[in-house]
Amino acid sequence: MRVTYIGHATLLLELDGVRILTDPNFEPKLGRLLPRVSAPGIALADLPKLDALLLTHAHADHLSFDSLERLPRDVPLIAPPAVAKWLRRLGFESAQPLAPGESMRVSAVALHAAAATHKGNRYGFDRWRSAANMYLLDGSTTTFFAGDTALVEDTHHLVERTLWTRGRELDLALLPIGYAPWWKPGFRRGHLTHEDALELFERLRASLFVPYHWGTFRHVTATAYDAINRLKTRLASHHLSDAVRILEPGETLELAAGGSLPAH
């Protein structure tokens, strides 16, 4: 398996001959005010042929209409049902719904969905589009992609019921990390801090953890590097530090079948 960090929540996952792109966003700005601070790790025009696009929710940093317009329209676009319905109405005919608890196949890879703890509606009025998914890719290696979520009691249950009950373990946890100042206590109701991500990593019993959602856009209340700098500081004394791989935009992590740890 190969994982390439492109930026924010956009990763290229290559597994068992299948190429999946998560939450594509190649825009130079997030809205009008939040500039991109690093170029995409792979330019959109340089992407390989894709087998699926994986969308977790409708927030602008995860669902970029500009990026979708520039990607091939025949690639299956997998999303929560309300988001898939919206995309089809907007002309993205390849959009396919995948609800929490449902599964589908992308060629040789099984894809399983669960609900994330995150209100993902695009605008303040469209609460019917608030669904957010987490995904588990199940092939010769296993990968959990969290999208955006908070750490709650059942965040790991998708892995528990899909893998552990079959005697399998999770090879790779792809988890977002974020930072908010003390005066934004509501942040953790829908996001992971670096400490939350480490706790979820441990609950998932994964072999490796790759953080994302950092180093891409400047935010209103935080820089693009606040979360990753805090994670690096914490890893200096954390018992799972050797199992965390921090990928810069454009860097690739390779895993052998079964999720063997790469050599340093």
Can you walk through the features of this model?
The chain is built from 5 helices and 15 strands. It has about 260 residues and is an alpha/beta fold. The strands form 3 sheets. The protein has a 7-stranded mixed sheet, covered by helices on one side. A 6-stranded mixed sheet has the order 9-10-11-12-13-14. A hairpin with a 2-residue loop joins β1 (about 1-5) and β2. The protein starts with a strand and ends in a 10-residue tail after the last strand. The mean pLDDT is about 95.
According to CATH, the fold-level topology is: Metallo-beta-lactamase, Chain A
Anisotropy-based shape: globular
CATH architectural grouping: 4-Layer Sandwich
Query: What is the average of the pLDDT values?
Result: 95
Unreliable parts: none
Task: State the main characteristics.
Metallo-beta-lactamase, Chain A; alpha/beta; 5 helices; six-stranded mixed β-sheet; seven-stranded mixed β-sheet; 264 residues
Question: What is the topological layout?
Answer:
Elements: E1 2-7, E2 10-15, E3 18-22, E4 29-30, E5 34-35, E6 52-54, H1 65-70, E7 77-79, H2 81-89, E8 95-97, E9 103-106, E10 109-115, E11 133-138, E12 142-145, H3 157-162, E13 172-176, H4 194-204, E14 208-212, H5 226-235, E15 252-254
Parallel strand pairs: 3-6, 6-7, 7-8, 12-13, 13-14
Antiparallel strand pairs: 1-2, 1-15, 2-3, 4-5, 9-10, 10-11, 11-12
